[in-house]
Amino acid sequence: QLQASGGGLVTPGGSLRLTCKASGRIGKILTMGWYRQAPGKPRAMVARIFFSSGTSQYADSVKGRFTISRPDQNAVDLLLSSVRPDDAGVYSCNIFMYDNREYFGQGTLVTVSS
Questions:
Q1: For burial by CB atoms within 10 Å, which of 1, 17, 102, 106 has the most?
Q2: In angstroms, what CA-CA distances link 51 with 16, 45, 48, 75, 87?
Q3: How many CB atoms neighbour CB 79 within 10 A?
Q4: Cα(23)–Cα(19) distance, integer angstroms
């Protein structure tokens, strides 16, 4: 089970932190991260972290502004900074397993507005 929290309203230029925790019988996780679906657009990867190496990957649009971290064994945080209107959307936590299974959690809405 993936439980996400932290979405909400943020002003342009502001910051917001999203948290995702995986619980239950999980198995071996390859990557854990966040996807975003903006209105009228397909869901796309925003940031993810490789558990074995700690390496992070970011979408080009968020590089230098968003930071993904792993505060706990099966949890990731995503710090959204210098938020822009095009950062708005439904953010979904994602885990990708070594056996190629993939899971998405329930999304959390991020609204960017002044």
A1: 17
A2: 23, 16, 9, 10, 25
A3: 15
A4: 13
DSSP secondary structure letter of residue 82 = S
- Tens digits of per-residue pLDDT, 27-75? 899 999 999 999 899 999 999 999 999 999 999 999 999 999 999 888 9
SS3 88: coil
Measured in residues, the chain has a length of 114
Q: How confident is the model at residue 19 (pLDDT cuts 50, 70, 90)?
A: very high
Cβ-based neighbours of 60, under 8 Å, separated by 6 or more: none
According to DSSP, residue 100 is labeled S
Question: Which residue type is seen at 11?
Answer: T
E-state strands within 1-114: 2-5, 8-10, 16-22, 29-37, 44-50, 56-58, 66-72, 75-80, 89-97, 102-104, 108-112
User: Left (φ > 0), alpha (ψ -120 to 50) or beta: where does 29 sit?
Assistant: beta
